[in-house]
Design a protein that fits this description.
Elements (H helix, E strand, L loop, with lengths): L8 E2 L1 E2 L2 E2 L40 H4 L1 H10 L3 E2 L17 E7 L7 E4 L4 E4 L1 E2 L2 E2 L10 E5 L16 E5 L9 E14 L2 E10 L12 H7 L1 H14 L5 E7 L1 H11 L5
Parallel strand pairs: 11-13
Antiparallel strand pairs: 1-4, 2-3, 5-10, 5-12, 6-7, 8-9, 10-11, 12-13, 12-14
């Protein structure tokens, strides 16, 4: 069976084979993820030369290699950095989002570019928890994008995104369709946030592909998101400025997309 040309990382630790997972419809394995760092960046898969990725059980293919690598203290990897992934998938040219904080949790996770991993956000050395209802959507960012520098983010930040879908692990790279854009005022700084749904219909919990459909078929969804954004912020520092459609979201993405992408 040919290998998958995924950008992925397989870490052998304590005789445990961590095979990559995927959430995008581009032909990568569909096994469960054991950790964020074992995530496959599979929405940029290319069926080319065989790689370290495999869909076969560890007992059949990975045991001998795992023992050798463990003895040598090596890590086999072909992984790109999450923030450097293309904004649009190579094969299907669909928008990609990297999940940082899964839906349904109160623990805030953020991508750390230095370690290429996902770590808890901290306040005074303590992991930050949302003192309200848990995340109603998967929070993440659009790779290879950067918003203008600001006092809160002196070097800029990737364009934030909320994916309306079932809970997805941190490190999931998902092909999505933008359905809207919400602009937040965070203590005087404007922050656009893309609203999206999975590109694959079977992964959608709301069968919509546009802002108009979302508002017409699920009018309460917008209000749920608005209330959560307001109540989950610390010290009431967030104000919802406005909501726009998918065309505006696409324009925003293009404006902040890195030229090197």
């Amino acid at each position: 069976m040919p290998g998958w040309g995924c950008r992925c990382s397989i870490t052998y630790s304590a005789y445990t084979c961590r095979w990559p997972a995927r959430s995008t419809p581009t032909g990568c394995p569909t096994t469960s993820r054991t950790s964020a760092t074992a995530s496959a960046l599979c929405s940029t898969c290319k069926k080319s030369a065989p790689s370290a990725c495999s869909t076969r059980p560890c007992a059949k293919h990975g045991l001998r290699g795992s023992m050798l690598l463990l003895a040598a203290g090596l890590v086999v990897g072909c992984q790109s950095r999450f923030n450097e992934l293309p904004t649009y998938s190579d094969e299907r040219h669909l928008l990609q989002v990297v999940v940082e904080t899964p839906a349904g949790t109160n623990r805030v996770l953020h991508y750390d570019a230095a370690s290429n991993d996902f770590k808890p956000e901290q306040r005074a050395g303590v992991d930050r928890l949302i003192n309200f209802l848990p995340y109603p959507a998967n929070a993440g960012f659009v790779p290879s994008t950067k918003l203008p520098a600001s006092p809160r983010h002196p070097t800029g930040q990737a364009l934030p995104a909320l994916v309306l879908a079932e809970s997805l692990p941190a490190g999931t790279v998902l092909e999505v369709l933008p359905v809207g854009l919400v602009t937040l005022d965070r203590a005087g700084e404007l922050e656009p946030v893309v609203l999206a749904v999975p590109a694959r219909p079977s992964q959608r919990i709301l069968p919509v592909t546009s802002w108009r459909e979302l508002r017409q078929q699920y009018p309460a969804a917008q209000e749920v998101l608005r209330l959560w954004l307001l109540r989950s912020a610390e010290h009431g520092e967030v104000r919802v400025v406005g909501w726009r459609d998918e065309q505006t979201a696409e324009q925003q993405i293009r404006q902040v997309q890195q030229k090197s992408d």
